Amino acid sequence: MLTKLTVEQFNNEVASSSPAPGGGSVSALAGAQAAALLAMYCNLTIGKVKYGDAEDMMIKTLNEAESCLLELQKAVEEDTQAFAKVMAAFKLPKGSEGEKEIRTQSIQQAFKEATMVPLNVCKSCLKLLGLVETAAGKGNESAISDLGVANLQAYAGLTGAAYNVLINLGAVKDSEFVGNCSSQLALVRKEGNESYTKTLNYLEEQLKI
Fold first, then answer.
1. For 86-127, what is each residue's pLDDT tens digit?
2. Choosing a second label site near 125 at 20 to 30 A (CA), which of 26, 76, 157, 175?
3. 63-68 average pLDDT score
4. Which of 2.115.10.20, 1.20.120.1200, 1.20.120.680, 1.10.579.10 would CATH assign to domain 24-90+97-207?
């Protein structure tokens, strides 16, 4: 499993001539890192008398961040697996008309699956951006820069995953599927950009950047 590799091993896998793991898995990993940093921010706040008023909110945020972390770590592997299915579908025989039909259907199904994985990553990263926005200014002041990196990584994960949704959708011929996914993605990107920008502006003001 990719998530069981060391950081060095994972980076070497990405850097190799193999097309996967690639941008999709890296985007999911960026989101997972955002979730981990948000969880750290919560853990550094919970139990501190100074932040007692935010205790319940931080505990809830921690639970949600940990849930996102598990989802996004799973997606690191799922994205590479989905791409492998696309490649396998292209290798199916196409000698007869029947084989060609099966191959075409398999390719289309594989591209749909390869679209859904990053779309779900986008949604998880959007959730993280919202959690970061809510937590900003309410937790441990000494970890504000870590929360800022969580914001950056969640946005990078969402944006990178969106690229993968779009490139896979370009190969899908089911117009209803394409329209549905495109609409969902547009909304997620709009909300994500708004949340990211709001948090970024707040944090940079606090850090006097």
1. 999 999 999 999 999 999 999 999 999 999 999 999 999 999
2. 175
3. 98
4. 1.20.120.680
How distant, in Å, are the alpha carbons of 61, 83, 132, 149 from that of 161?
Answer: 23, 13, 19, 18
Residue 39 scores a pLDDT above 70: yes
What is the maximum span of the chain, computed from C-alpha positions, in angstroms? 73
The full length of the chain comes to: 209
Give the DSSP letter string of 53-98: GGHHHHHHHHHHHHHHHHHHHHHHHHHHHHHHHHHHHHTS--SSHH
Tokens of 12: 């070497």
CB atoms within 10 A of CB 154: 34
Which tokens belong to 32? Answer: 């997972």
* Cα 31 versus chain centre, distance: 4
State the DSSP H helix or E strand holding residue 41, giving kind and residue range, or none if neither: helix 23-43
d(CA 145, CA 149): 6
Residue 203 has pLDDT above 80, yes or no: yes
Residues 124-168: tens digit of each pLDDT: 999 999 999 999 999 999 999 999 999 999 999 999 999 999 999
Identity of the residue numbered 113: E
| Cβ atoms within 10 Å, residue 69 | 21
- Please measure the distance between the N-terminal and C-terminal CA atoms of the chain and give it in whole angstroms: 40
